[in-house]
Amino acid sequence: MRMLVFLYLLTGMRVKMRKMNIGMFKVGKIAIIVLVFGVLFLVVGGVNGQDGEEDPELKYEWEYRNVNLKTNIEVRELSGSKGRFFFEEDSVLKITHKGKLGERTYSGLEDIDGEDSYLVFDKDGKMIEGEFKTSKQGEFILGNEIVLIPAGSEVRFKDGEAVIKVSNKIIDFDKVKPRVVDGKKGETAFIFTTGANSIKHEGLNFKELGYYDGKYFFPFLGNYDEINFKEFGFHMYNKDKVRVYFDFKGEVDNSYQGAYVSFNKDKGVFVTGSNVNENGPAIQFTPSNVYGLNFDQGDSDNLMIQALGNDEGNWVRLQKSPDEVIRNSQQKIVPKIDGLNQFAMHNNGHAGFFNTNTEKFYLRPNKGVIKGFENIPDKTTSVAVTVNEVKMMKGGEETKPMGNYKVGWSNFNEANFGLNSKFIQLGTYRGVPGLYRGVSDLEAYNYELTEEAFERIAGIRLVSTNANGKDFIRGSESKKNIKYLFDLIANMPPEQVDMVRTINLGHGKWAYGYATTNGMQIYLTVHRPGSSAAGSGFELSPRLFAHEMAHIVDYNGGSGGFNRDWYRSGLNGEVTTSGYSHKGGESISEFVGFFQYGYPGTINKYMNGNRAKSFRRAVVIATKHHFFTRNRMEQIFRASNLPYDDKSISAYLNKQNVGNIQYS
Amino acid sequence: MWGIFNIVDKMNKKNIVMMVMVLLFVNVVSASLFYELELFYENGEVEVKSKEVIFSHDDLTKYNVINDYYFERHSVGVVDKNGKEGRVEYGVLNKAYGDGIKVGVDLESNEEELFEEGGLEEFDVFTFNLYLPYSEGDERLVFYDVDGNEIGRDGLEGFVGKVDVDSELDEGIEKVLGKDVGKRLSKYWVLVLILIVLIVVLVWLIVRERKK
User: Which of A149, A516, B84, B142 is the most exposed place for a label (fewest CB within 10 A)?
Assistant: First the structure.
């Protein structure tokens, strides 16, 4: 046989040389080299060749449907159509397949812990069970897959699962991995285990590695239920020790029949799912994560996700967000989470979970929902992240039970539902009913509370005009103050923010506040540190801020035609909230200052009082011209027990009667 | 026609990508240049205190507020080499609101009357900024008052303004060139020079290829 191969090779070489037009001298040299190697090939082959092995007397022969089996094994059990063959020291079992697989000889199988090795074949001659230890490396056909088993391995194969305990020597799994014999689906789950992390796959070392039908999994056979993936920035907890498939694609995969994780460093995507009705593993992300999560140093930030299993498909995905251009500058956005069917997550003080039965997403403060992690740490910070979309399968159709609502988590242990991920409203500042704190998916709002970040995001320059102003934006409380400034502008319409170019903080020659057309700047008095200017508890009065900002909008004529709607219509004379309102353009600024942050009771008094129709119209006009956000307008009407549908708004504009309603 | 494809094949792909980026980038730069004029206003007279060419992603002309309720509407004509004039209207921004705090007011209260003195101020003498779209062929500016009478002129011939490049453009240049090529004025001209060099190299390569 080897001689034939050698002759074939030699002929091939000559043909190639002729084609290559190599000179006779070179041909001669090459021919000699080939000849020498050929001889060596034949000699070595002759010494080590399996063909020439001694062939013991195989006196027993068995004819199965697909194979012919010859052996010298005397001890065998026959049960129905199955045959169990027990191996002794010199036992040999030669299988001749009737298809392309040819002949295969199993020999040198050793006993395991004093028990004889054995193999079981079904009526077709397919190995369906076996326990054996190999003395030399060789290929075995287990079920319908060929697997290369290293020398000294213990194999336990039964019920479609083959556990192969290999030595601690490094093995490259991609070289030994099973391959199907008939081009059909793999039937056997192979689990390779070692005493050390000596199984190599995709550049990683494993202590246990599973393989089933082309897919890899963590078998969790050993005495452990968690794995730390330092390089990929997560920790896997698997209390139920379910089989967890994995890949490095970072993609949702409905083909896994069980739990899985799929992660990709380059894409910054992590997916965990469970396509059966059992929980997947709990995943805890670590500071070294590659998915864009920002952990505070030295804090116990804790973000976990878990797919809770659904045979209609179930996954939860965390991924880096692309930068967004806001006011012409690139802004980093915190990572996003989305999911299909039920999943759970922990983020410091708030657990969240989506329940497919109720079709609702729940936010639960201070108590965990992931099994084994009920006591979630309630620290001062959390990890900023947004649950962007939640889907579910209902009658075979994909639905979005939360609609466009999102759940935002800040870096400050706050979470809430909202439509605008740039600013999801939380509660209001103490004593300032209309000034909302918020959660934002802007990275800077969570982690970069600096003067520069504010300027970049707001598009407004900050200038400190005295020591108070300087302390406000650069002093020890600057982070708190910058967040306050972020919230102040987030509560205003973006068009209004765009009209202002500079905010001067401090105390200039003007007594309190100033709004000049020269560079569209406002000047705001900042009180000495620690001296609160208003109910907000900050040294900067929010009402003053709204008042001066309103002057700038007034200069700009609102959205166009504000003079007609306000001054020429006489509304400025009718809508007065203070004595100061009577001073020309102070009417709109005073009105906005009162209504932006006023108490609901006071607002109600104006909206349902003597000049109710003028005030209602004023609210709509002010919203149209960017003094109030639409959201603030709705809050004002709600506080006044008034409807705010399109028909009602049209009626307010025309100063028509609109009856009160009762909100639940 | 086919020669150029041969050249493209031969040229380093990296260089081509870089060249395309620079071409696109210079295009962006040209589209976002503005004259920033600092105007000194005194009792109806207008004088240009300073003028610069600045770059901005933002449309700066939005800051030329026109609001007849508050501001007199003036206009400026931008005249090019051929004598063609394009007029831009603007408001004379000479107003400010000052709001003085009431003595003894409780700052903790959000609803008490906060202000007592103040109101609108109007200035006879002041400066303000005016933004005009930049165009290379511009020759002079002609200022008109509210009635359309000419009240001043200022030349733009050989205008070499200070190019105020914002930080994002700085980053863009660093990304394209791989190094900081200087600040403000130098950055813009270095881009133009690079563009010229690249065009010369491209033409040379095409000519050489055709000769072959």
Answer: B84
pTM comes to: 0.79
For chain B, give the number of residues.
Answer: 212
Q: Which tokens in the block code for residue A63?
A: 């004819």
Asked whether residue A600 is assigned to any structural domain, the reply reads: yes
φ, ψ at B99 (rounded to 5°): -125, 110
Note whether B117 contacts A: Cβ–Cβ < 8 A.
yes
- For residue A252, count other CB atoms closer than 10 A to its CB: 20
Give how many domains chain A has, as a whole number: 2
Within 8 A of A581 by CB-CB distance, chain B residues are none
Express as a percent the part of chain A with pLDDT over 70: 90
Q: What is the C-alpha separation between B191 and B171, in angstroms, rounded?
A: 13
CB contact under 8 A, B99 and A584: no
Q: Which one, of A232, A356, A252, lies nearest residue A293 by Cα?
A: A232
Which residues face B140 on adjacent strands? B79, B155
In degrees, rounded to 5, the angle at the alpha carbon of residue A603 between the alpha carbons of residues A602 and A607 is: 125
**Which of A459, A516, A542 lies at the smallest CB-CB distance from B96?**
A516
**Inter-chain touch B168–A551, beta carbons under 8 Å:** no
Which three-class secondary structure state does DSSP give residue B163?
strand
| Residue A563 belongs to domain spanning | 557-664
Q: How many interface pairs between A and B have CB atoms less than 8 angstroms apart?
A: 131
Of B94, B107, B119, the CB nearest to A533: B107
* A549 vs A372, residue with greater confidence: A549
Quick: pLDDT tens for B112-137. Answer: 677 888 899 999 999 999 999 988 88
Tokens of B110: 């959000």
> What average pLDDT does the segment A584-611 reach?
93
Cβ contact (<8 Å) for B99 and A514?
A: yes
Task: List CB contacts (< 8 A) between B128 and chain A.
Answer: 517-519
Which band of pLDDT confidence, cut at 50, 70 and 90, is reported for residue B162?
Answer: very low
CB contact under 8 A, B111 and A556: no
Answer yes or no: is A525 within a domain.
no
Give the other-Cβ count within 10 Å of A144's Cβ: 17
Q: How far apart are CA A88 and CA A107, in angstroms?
A: 9
The answer to whether residue A604 neighbours chain B at the CB level (below 8 Å) is: no
**Minimum distance, in Å, between the CA of residue B188 and any CA atom of chain A:** 20
Yes or no: say if A524 and A547 are a contact pair by the CB < 8 Å rule.
no
In our burial notation (b when 16+ CB lie closer than 10 A, e otherwise), range A387-423 reads bbbbbbbeeeeeeebbeeebbbbbbbbbbbebebbbb
Taking 80 as the threshold, does the pLDDT of residue B110 lie above it? no
Tell me the per-residue pLDDT of A136-191, one tens digit each, with 9 for 90 and over.
Answer: 999 999 999 999 999 999 999 999 999 999 987 888 998 888 999 877 889 999 99
pLDDT at B28: 41
Q: Residues A506-552: pLDDT tens digits?
A: 975 555 899 999 999 999 999 887 777 776 778 898 999 999 999 99
Q: Residue A11 falls within a domain, yes or no?
A: yes
Decide if A532 touches B, using CB distance below 8 A. Answer: yes
For A534, the closest of B63, B69, B110 (CB atoms) is B110
Q: Please count the residues of chain A.
A: 664
pLDDT-derived band at A226 (thresholds 50, 70, 90) equals very high
Q: Is residue A268, in this structure, part of any structural domain at all?
A: no
**Among A residues 297-316, those touching chain B with beta carbons less than 8 Å apart:** none
Q: Which of A12, A32, A48 is the last residue of a domain?
A: A48
Judge: B168–A563 Cβ closer than 8 Å, yes or no: no
Provide the shortest C-alpha distance from residue A430 to chain B (in Å).
11
- In whole angstroms, what is the distance from residue A29 CA to residue A23 CA? 10
Answer whether A514's CB lies under 8 Å from A548's CB. Answer: yes
pLDDT at A446: 96
Q: What is the pLDDT of residues A333-351, one digit of tens each?
A: 999 999 999 999 999 888 9
Please give the Cα distance from A50 to A230 (Å, whole number).
Answer: 45
